[in-house]
Amino acid sequence: MRRTKALLACSILPLFLFGCSDDDDDVVQEPTPEFANVRVVHAASDAPMVNVTANDAILNSLENVDYQVASSRFEVETGTYDIGVTGILPGENAEVLQADVTLEADMNYDIFAVGNVADESLSLLTVTSTKQPLKPVMRKFRLYMQHLWHRRSTFMLLPPIQTSLRNNHLSLLNLLILQT
Prior knowledge:
Blueprint: H1 2-19, E1 35-42, E2 50-54, E3 57-58, E4 74-77, E5 79-87, E6 94-103, E7 107-114, E8 123-130, E9 148-151, E10 154-157, E11 163-166, E12 169-172
Parallel strand pairs: 1-7
Antiparallel strand pairs: 1-4, 2-3, 2-5, 5-6, 7-8, 9-10, 11-12
């Protein structure tokens, strides 16, 4: 009888162990992050040096950025960011520009600080283009030109400029000259 109980206990034990199997072998794959390319340009001639932030953290070491300084292109994970520009002022710094910018995958974003402090026309201007690699053929380049017009504290993006390069001569085909 003891032997039967011992055999019964030994045969039931594996069933309990099998029933308690912890099957956590399902591997959850995290989505692969997507990136956009960003470049920041300080183009406000009478503005002080600035710090550039994204979601209240310094963006890509962009501290003490002076007028006419442009960063190189750098990758930023896609998403919506609160971009801030803080003027470095004697005594206390102050956020002078802010904009929410949504970055999409495989896009280039050029973010310009434009305007003037004196006439209170400072603003952030975001210009986008697609990331298209150049074909590996010698003597090719890509030229991006942005056509801006500033009048009475407002910046306007004008129609794209068509360019033509023939025999080492660059032609601007539809450049508008506006007088204020």
